[in-house]
Design a protein that fits this description.
single chain, about 575 residues, alpha+beta, Immunoglobulin-like, 5-stranded antiparallel sheet, 9 helices
Length: about 575
């Protein structure tokens, strides 16, 4: 009992002091503490007013910080509180108290710091070629009232890269949000500022929008006096121009067939190129009466990547640009160079590599279309046999991080069906994707290369084991047997019927499912390349392969790059993804 009373006696003064907001220095019943407090050793950026080394008890002191920062308390004062009891007398210590938002005084239990009022996390800053978007958080809500965000040109623009002034201004509300600058111009400097009235700047940065696909060189002409091809220097308005790529294609005047291709990369300062003579004593024009020229421009850090979660908005933006170009009355606007078409036109549509095998006289009848010939460096070469010389119009194609994942082929002709099955056997293909009907618009697009029951094609016997039909898709299971080989192989064909020639699928979702089914089959039973064909083996076939590539890229990186995907496919087979509408199904 005595111990309890002793503890109560010791704690009573402390409890009494705790209930008081301020110790009363005039209370004659308590020992007198010192009347002065030392300057607090807090954040070095804090500014105290008045600025002195010592302060009187209960003297109010104002705190401030550099621009863009706020102290956790704007008004403080020093007081005393009981630290302990010694010899039945309280021992005092000096403490600092700060005024809270309700006007009350509370003890400051940690250092007072200059806090950045507005926080913009660098990783959340999103910059594209036409917009700047930043996510902001206010760390001191009381200090963030009436914040305004502005977006302005960083400086005056000058010809030939004149940029329109923007009037992006917005009042920010709440503790967090997103500020987006209005439509901007590529490769241009803008100043983004968030401030408090009248003139307190909380955040300001100079930002440059990203590069985009450049315009094509203008005023291209052939100088007859020098035999040089000339063009006007392209300014770096949409990105840094690091050079020009010049493709010179020569074709025969007799039948229009491809003769040769010269591909050059020229310095950005070059504005003319002398066309070479192809034989002694004869000019370029004398030897080849029909010459085609095509240009593409390389841009430093060409940005055509689109985040997956912004893909729908990108499609809408492309479509709006196309509609606006169609509806404009400005004759200087290229109506056919807006939206997706603008990017699509930057792709090379000519032959990029030699294709000598396909041009040989003995192989020309094996090409369904004269201009669609596989490149020599990536064509499928059949093993020599009594039935042929090893040529087939088919190309190895890469998918995302998967070399030779596909074979892109033309639809078989009556004379190439045996070659087709030889390729399936040689390449150990277990999945065929057919994207054309046998006949479309009264034109034969593909020879029927499979039997209704069983048929022999050269050294190969093909047996139709099973057929399953759903809306727009026929799945056939074949048993493939080669003469002299004991074990047959199973080949599955997916015949998709809802994709018109030179058009887009009627049910894109079903096509996406087909891509996933094909990949599932490959995972279940790894074999050779997936064989994809339509009629020419470039349009629908190219789109299917690009779709597989981009789906895998989107899952792995969170971004897709349609432009560079198609560009890469065209390095392996001419004119892959044949129309603009297919470039983004």
């Amino acid at each position: 009992m005595a111990l309890r009373w002793t503890l109560l006696l010791l704690l009573t003064p402390l409890l009494a002091v705790e209930e008081q907001e301020e110790p009363d220095p005039n209370n004659s019943g308590e020992p007198q503490e010192t009347e002065m407090c030392q300057r607090p050793q807090w954040d070095s950026g804090l500014q105290l007013a008045p600025d002195q080394d010592n302060y009187k008890k209960n003297e109010e002191v104002m705190l401030s910080c550099p621009e863009g920062f706020q102290p956790s308390f704007t008004k403080i004062k020093c007081s005393s509180e009981v630290q302990s009891i010694s010899h039945r007398k309280p021992v005092y210590r000096e403490v600092w108290r700060g005024r809270d938002s309700r006007g009350g005084w509370v003890r400051i239990r940690s250092n007072v710091e200059c806090i950045e009022v507005l926080q913009v996390v660098p990783g959340t800053l999103e910059i594209s070629s036409t917009s700047i978007k930043l996510n902001w958080t206010c760390r001191l809500p009381d200090a963030c009232q009436r914040m305004r965000a502005t977006c302005r040109l960083a400086g005056p623009s000058s010809p030939p890269c004149e940029a329109e002034e923007v009037k992006g201004e917005e009042t920010l509300h709440g503790q967090k949000g997103t500020f987006t600058c209005p439509p901007l111009q590529p490769f241009t400097d803008y100043s983004v500022t968030i401030s408090l009235p009248p003139s307190t700047v909380l955040y300001t940065r100079l930002l440059r929008t990203k590069e985009t696909v450049p315009d094509k060189p203008k005023k291209l002409w052939l100088d007859p006096s020098t035999g040089s091809l000339r063009w006007k220097l392209l300014p770096s308005c949409k990105g840094e121009i690091i050079g020009y790529q010049l493709n010179i294609t020569t074709r025969s005047a007799r039948d229009g067939s491809f003769l040769e291709m010269e591909r050059l990369r020229l310095n950005s300062s070059v504005t003319e190129y002398p066309l070479p003579e192809h034989s002694p004593g004869s000019s370029y024009a004398e030897k080849f009466t029909c010459v085609c020229y095509s240009f593409s421009v390389d841009v430093c850090k060409l940005n055509t990547r689109i985040p997956v979660d912004e893909l729908l908005e990108a499609l809408k933006r492309f479509k709006r640009a196309e509609i606006e170009a169609e509806q404009t009355e400005d004759e200087s606007v290229d109506r056919h160079g807006a939206g997706r078409l603008r990017e699509y036109e930057q792709l090379s549509s000519t032959l990029l590599h030699p294709c000598d095998a396909g041009k040989e006289l003995c192989n020309q009848s094996k090409n369904r279309y004269k201009s669609i010939i596989p490149y020599d460096h990536c064509r499928v070469v059949l093993q020599p046999s009594d039935m042929g010389n090893g040529y087939i119009n088919a190309s190895y194609m890469d998918s995302y991080r998967s070399p030779h994942f596909f074979i892109a082929a033309q639809g078989p002709l009556p004379g190439t069906v045996v070659d087709f099955w030889q390729m399936v056997w040689q390449e150990k293909t277990s999945v065929i994707v057919m994207l054309t009907s046998l006949v479309e618009q009264n034109k034969t697009k593909c020879e029927q290369y499979w039997p209704e029951q069983e048929q022999v094609y050269g050294d190969f016997t093909v047996t139709l084991s099973n057929t399953r039909t759903t809306t727009g898709l026929v799945t056939r299971i074949f048993c493939l047997q080669k003469a002299g080989c004991a074990l047959p192989r199973v080949v599955e064909q997916f015949h998709y019927l809802l994709w018109p020639d030179h058009g887009v699928p009627r049910n894109p979702a079903q096509l996406l499912c087909l891509v996933e089914v094909v990949n599932k089959r490959v995972l279940e039973a790894p074999a050779g390349p997936v064989l994809v064909h339509c009629s020419a083996g470039i349009g629908r076939t190219g789109t299917f392969i690009a779709l597989d590539f981009l789906l895998k890229m989107g899952k792995a990186e969170g971004e897709v790059d349609v432009f560079h995907c198609v560009q890469r496919l065209r390095e392996q087979r001419v004119s892959m993804v044949q129309t603009k509408s297919r470039s983004l199904v």
